Amino acid sequence: MASASPLRIAIVGAGSSGLLLALLLQRQGHAVSLLERAAAVRSDGCGILLVSAGLEALLAAGLDDLVADWRAASQPVQRFVFRNLRGGLIETSAPDQDPLRPPSLLIHRRVVLDTLASTLRPGCFHGGWELRSWRQHDGGVELEASDGRQWRGDLLIGADGIFSRVAPGLDSGHRLNYLGDRVWRGVIEDDSFCRDGEFIVYTRGRGVYANVFDLGFAPDGRPLTHWGFFHEEPLPLSREEQRRLLREPIPDDALNRLPADVAALMRATPLEHQVANWSYDLDPLQRLVLGRVGLIGDAGHAMSSSQARGMTAGLEDAECLARQLASWPEDPLEALRAYERERLPRVHAYQHRSREISNRIGRARRPASPSASPTTAAA
Fold first, then answer.
1. What is the rounded distance in angstroms from the CA atom of residue 17 to the CA atom of residue 121?
2. How far from the centroid of its chain's Cα atoms is residue 42's Cα?
3. 255: helix, coil or strand?
C-alpha cells in the first residue's frame, strides 16, 4: 500500500493509550474509529503514579495544554515512605527527579481518561463494540463484532488491554501469567492519612502488601487518598468463582495484618469506590506488529505495577506510532514496522525490569490457569 491519502484506522479499546492515539491520528486527518466494548469510555478506577516519561510523550506530541490540565488536577509525588506491617518506619526518600523533566504525578485515572475523551471528534467513538474476530489481506483489515457489526479499513491497532482480543491473532505467544495476588484499589475522601505528595508503601509480608498515596483534591475541593491492597492467594480455576470473589470486600483476616489506621481507611471506603482484579503480566512478545495490525499499551506488554510504567508505556506507544505514521505518509506498513523497531526493545526492558522487581519483593509468580482468558476481563 503506497498512498498519502487519509487512512481508515480502527483502534480497539478506549483506555488511555487508545484515546491518545485516536486524538493524535485525528489531528493528522485520518478517519479513526475507536471501538470500545463498554457503552461509554470507562473512566472509573483509582489513582496512578504517572512517571515523567508519560508526560514527556504528550509534550513530544505537542499536547502542552493537556499536560498543563493534568498537572493542575494532580499532585506531584514529593516523598516515598516505606513502613513494615506494624507501621514502623523503614526509610523515607525523595523521588529521583530530574529538575529539567516534568514531575511524576499522583493522578486519578478519571482525570486522564475524561480529558482525553473530551478531545475526540463526534462520530469517532463506537461503544458496545465487542470484537469477535479480525482478519487482514492485501487490501485491508476486516473486523466483526459480537453483534454482527463489521468494520473495514486500512489498519487495526489493538489497545484493548491485557485480555486483548487482537493480540492472540498477532502473536501466538500472547500468554497471561498470574502474579499471585487478588488486588483491591480504592479512593476515599481523607485529609489526614497522607498529604503533600506522599506515597506510603507497606512492605510485603504475611501474604499482603499495601500502598497509600495522596491524590490531591477533587474538583469540588475534597481531599482524596488512594489505596491499594494486594492479597496473595491461588487463582480459582472457575471463571464464575473468579468473578464472585472480585465482588467481595477485602477479607477481615487479611486486613487485620495491616496497621489499624490503614485497615480503617480501607474499611471506610464504600464498595462503589473500589475496584478489584487478579494480578497478571505478559511474557514479552516477539512482535508488536503483523502486517496491517499493531499493538499498543497493555495489549502488547502488560506488566506488574512494581515499576509504575503501565500507563506511561502505553502513552509512549501512542506518541511513537502516530509520529511514525506521520513520517511515512506514503507507506503506513513501513510506519508500523518502524514503530515496532523503536518500541519493542524499550517495552521488553520495562517488562524484564518490572518482573525482576516483583520477584525481588517476594510476590509469588504462578502460570495463568486455562481459565485466564479474555472473558475473565469482566471479573
1. 17
2. 12
3. helix
* pLDDT, position 374: 36
How confident is the model at residue 362, as a pLDDT?
57
Determine which helix (DSSP H) or strand (DSSP E) holds 141, and give its type and residue range.
strand 140-145
| Helix, strand and coil percent figures for the chain, each rounded to 5 | 35, 30, 40
Between strands 131-137 and 79-83, the pairing is unpaired
Strand partners, 157: 11, 294
Estimate to the nearest angstrom the gap between the alpha carbon of 100 and the chain centroid: 26
Q: Rounded to an integer, what is the distance from CA 210 to the centroid of its chain?
A: 19
Give bridge partners of residue 275 from the DSSP assignment.
185
Alpha helices in 28-154, H assignment, sequence order: 52-60, 64-72, 109-117
Q: Rounded distance, CA 183 to CA 310, Å? A: 16
Pairwise CA distance, residues 156 & 222, whole Å: 41
CA separation, residue 243 to residues 146, 178, 372, 377 (Å): 21, 15, 12, 9
Give the model confidence (pLDDT) of 205-219 as tens digits. 989 999 999 999 988
Are the beta carbons of 69 and 108 closer than 8 angstroms?
no
Residues 41-71 have pLDDT tens digits of 988 889 999 999 999 999 999 999 999 999 9
* Residue ranges, the chain, pLDDT below 50: 1-3, 364-379
Residue 235 has phi, psi (to 5 degrees) of: -80, 120
Reduced to 3 states, what is the DSSP secondary structure of residue 257? coil
The x, y and z cell numbers of residue 365, run together, are: 509468580
- By C-alpha distance, which of 105, 161, 165, 173 is closest to 131? 165
pTM: 0.92
